[in-house]
Amino acid sequence: MMKGVHFHAIVALLSLASSLVSAFDPSPLQDICVAVDDTKSAVFVNGKFCKDLKYAEANDFFFSGLQNPRNTDNKVGSNVTTVNVDQIKGLNTLGISLVRIDYAPYGQNPPHIHPRGTEILIVIEGTLLVGFVTSNPENRLFTKVLNKGDVFVFPIGLIHFQFNVGKTNAIAFAGLSSQNAGTITIANTVLGSNPPINPDVLAKAFQLDKNVIEDLQKKF
């Protein structure tokens, strides 16, 4: 009798959990749905235009070149190479994508969020200081120094960052739980919006002099 009770309790718990889960990318209703821009040779499946299955090929699921280092000669000292549905059309509806991140010494992937995906990152070379901050009102920082082979997770929608604390280049790869997770870099978005946010608003928000805000906006 107790085994039966436990079984029904587990079933009820799983049912409740599944009812609370919300997919960020559409769940596939077919094996593959290669994204296509030309609707003349496409079929409409699961809310997306997909290449007719008979025209799909291996190259729709292929990308080459992630072994090559990227140029990090820029203001933040990093370069993110994205491999999402724009690069691999076969990722459409599969809810996953990939990035390679190159860091110059003391370079960073500045604070940003992915509005549509959780990120799991592995360090391939170098040493990174990473972290994420929880939402209001706690704004709790979770941070860790990662070395080669270490893995860290950045939950969906939370501000996070990586900083190369070493004297040599660093490399990381990251998977994201969306075919197109999106990126909102905090500084660029707040200080470099088009048109600019009224500096009085930002001065109040950051508790800074308006002239400081205007100077910061000029940098973006």
Notes on the protein architecture:
It is a single chain. The protein is α+β, with helices and mostly antiparallel strands and 220 residues long. It starts with a helix and ends with a helix. The strands form three sheets. A five-stranded antiparallel sheet has the order 3-4-11-6-9, with no helix packed on it. The chain has a five-stranded antiparallel sheet with strand order 8-7-10-5-12. A two-stranded antiparallel ribbon has the order 1-2. The chain has helices at residues 2-20, 186-191, 199-206, 210-218; strands spanning 42-45, 48-51, 78-83, 97-103, 108-113, 119-125, 128-133, 141-146, 151-154, 159-164, 170-176, 184-185. The protein is globular, with a radius of gyration of 22 Å.
Task: List key phrases describing it.
220 residues; five-stranded antiparallel β-sheet; 4 helices; 19% helix; globular
Task: Give the ordered list of helices and strands.
Answer: HEEEEEEEEEEEEHHH
**Major sheet description:** 5 strands, antiparallel
Strand order of the largest sheet: 3-4-11-6-9
Q: Give the terminus-to-terminus CA distance.
A: 67 Å
Helix/strand class: alpha+beta
Unreliable spans: none
Helix share, percent = 10-25%
> Helical region count?
4
What proportion of the residues form beta strands (DSSP E)? 25-35%
The geometry reads as: globular
Radius of gyration: 22 Å
- Arithmetic mean of pLDDT: 88
Total number of beta strands: 12
